[in-house]
């Protein structure tokens, strides 16, 4: 069989092409050797299709959420994928008509068809372990509960009515490794702009923490956690009220970057004390890695984007376009920001190689970590084609280069519960573009340059996605789903 190397024009279409089928099979082709001690279940999530029936959508944030499950038992890998049964997905099974507004896609009919409508929850951004099961997350609405064995959708949850007015629950909750509690936030535009913060205890009960009113509430995707604070880095990406109110533009087109406003570091005490705001020059970022307290200082690390907001925004809306252009992920740097008790912010560059989807050893959450792992920018698709490892102590970057590929977020799995930091594996889902098939890559985190220890080849591709989680619990996909 001959394979054709993808061109720049075709690669991004390959990466975002839909997977319409729901499959379940044992992976037959595995190159290399599976680590016998790597046992558990990997879950990945992202938009599986950007269409409603046969009507095409164009923004990466608007595709229906699809979960991929990889069950690893030490000797084999079983794959399964299922779509989250949101209202948006179910409508698309019956109709070609775009009925719901998206983040970047409008309902046909102009402003009158869109006015007063918020983007629809497509549950496509992150998946996390919760209360013996899973939550599929999206920015502006309720999480969806997912059966961890069958991947069946058990329905949305508002934590017994304890979420805010809009029910927003961010896609990036953080766990305190000492207590097991999960922290998160939600952005409320109505009835007044505010950031709501939450703690979910180990029994699954949600507790409201501080609510911080902000008249110029920015869009914010992520946050970090220390032993004392929820740490927000609020870039000046601000809603244009007139555009939003009149629905003349899509939601993402109604967000403007206002550099004169600067970036605000918001520190919200976990014990309910008064929030603190520290002003800084304007930054642009999407994801943070970790944060920790160092004496009286608070340290937070993130991927800083070296681009214009308008260019980044435009890059999100190029799915299903019949154009020779392709998005190019912007230059970026892994950065550290140290906030002193007096309000000084000290900036340090950790790595200058462009990448995104930063990860680390989750056991090091709320405390200093030495190694970060990222998807490295590059390749014909304009997204990511390398797995990067950054040593914070030496500022060295090592990598596993993947050629004509589109690789996702690398997750670190420790070899044993008490293994040293970096002693474990990196799991990454990679779309090999020449063969147009996806692979689960297993790398030794200590030496990614060596290449994969094992490569599990799927029979098909998985569309470009966002985030994932791992549990040492081995899923049983044939288990019956409990009644709703």
From TrEMBL:
Cofactor note: Binds 1 Fe(2+) ion per subunit.
The EC number(s) this enzyme carries: 1.13.11.-
Group of enzyme by EC: oxidoreductase
InterPro entries, sorted: Carotenoid_Oase
GO molecular function terms attached to this record: carotenoid dioxygenase activity; metal ion binding
Cofactor(s) required for function per UniProt: Fe(2+)
Gene Ontology process terms (BP): carotene catabolic process
Keywords: Dioxygenase, Iron, Metal-binding, Oxidoreductase
Binding-site positions, Fe cation: 172, 221, 287, 467
UniProt family annotation: Belongs to the carotenoid oxygenase family.
Name of this chain's protein: Dioxygenase
Species this chain originates from: Nocardia uniformis
Lineage of source species: Bacteria, Bacillati, Actinomycetota, Actinomycetes, Mycobacteriales
């Amino acid at each position: 069989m001959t394979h054709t190397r993808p061109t720049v024009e075709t690669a991004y279409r390959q990466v975002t092409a839909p997977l319409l089928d729901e499959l379940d099979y044992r992976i037959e082709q595995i190159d290399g050797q599976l680590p016998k001690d790597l046992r558990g279940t990997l879950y990945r999530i992202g938009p599986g299709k950007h269409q409603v029936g046969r009507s095409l959508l164009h923004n990466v944030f608007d595709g229906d959420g699809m979960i991929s499950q990889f069950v690893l038992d030490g000797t084999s890998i079983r794959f399964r994928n299922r779509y989250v049964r949101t209202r948006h997905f179910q409508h698309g099974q019956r109709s070609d008509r775009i009925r719901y507004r998206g983040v970047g896609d409008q309902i046909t009919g102009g402003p009158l068809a869109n006015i007063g409508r918020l983007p629809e929850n497509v549950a496509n951004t992150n998946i996390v372990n919760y209360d013996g099961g899973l939550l599929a997350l999206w920015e502006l609405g309720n999480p969806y509960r997912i059966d961890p064995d069958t991947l069946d959708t058990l329905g949305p949850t508002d934590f017994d009515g304890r979420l805010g007015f809009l029910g927003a629950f961010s896609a990036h909750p953080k766990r305190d490794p000492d207590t097991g509690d999960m922290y998160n936030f939600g952005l409320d535009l109505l009835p007044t702009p505010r950031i709501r913060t939450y703690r979910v205890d180990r029994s699954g009960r949600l507790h409201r923490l501080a609510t911080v009113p902000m008249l110029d509430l920015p869009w914010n995707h992520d946050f970090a956690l220390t032993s004392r604070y929820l740490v927000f880095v609020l870039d000046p990406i601000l809603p244009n009220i007139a555009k939003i109110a009149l629905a003349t533009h899509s939601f993402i087109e109604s967000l403007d970057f206002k550099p004169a406003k600067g970036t605000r570091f918001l520190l919200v005490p976990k014990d309910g004390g008064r929030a603190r705001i520290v002003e800084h020059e304007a930054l642009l970022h999407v994801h943070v890695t970790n944060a920790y307290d160092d004496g009286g200082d608070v340290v937070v690390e993130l991927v800083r984007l070296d681009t214009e907001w308008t260019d980044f925004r435009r890059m999100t809306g190029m799915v299903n376009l019949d154009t020779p252009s392709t998005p190019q992920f912007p230059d970026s740097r892994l950065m550290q920001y140290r906030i002193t008790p007096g309000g000084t912010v000290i900036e340090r560059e950790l790595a200058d190689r462009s990448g995104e989807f930063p990860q680390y050893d989750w056991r090091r959450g709320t405390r200093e970590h030495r190694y970060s792992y990222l998807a490295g920018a590059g390749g014909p698709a304009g997204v990511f084609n390398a797995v990067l490892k950054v040593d914070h102590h030496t500022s060295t970057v090592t990598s596993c280069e993947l050629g004509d590929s589109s690789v996702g977020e690398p997750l670190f799995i420790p070899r044993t519960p008490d293994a040293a930091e970096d002693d474990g594996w990196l799991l990454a889902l990679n779309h090999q573009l020449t063969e147009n098939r996806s692979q689960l890559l297993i790398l030794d985190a200590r030496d990614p340059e060596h290449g994969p220890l094992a490569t599990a080849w799927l029979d098909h591709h998985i569309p470009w996605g966002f985030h994932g989680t791992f549990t040492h619990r081995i899923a049983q996909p044939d288990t019956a789903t409990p009644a709703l």
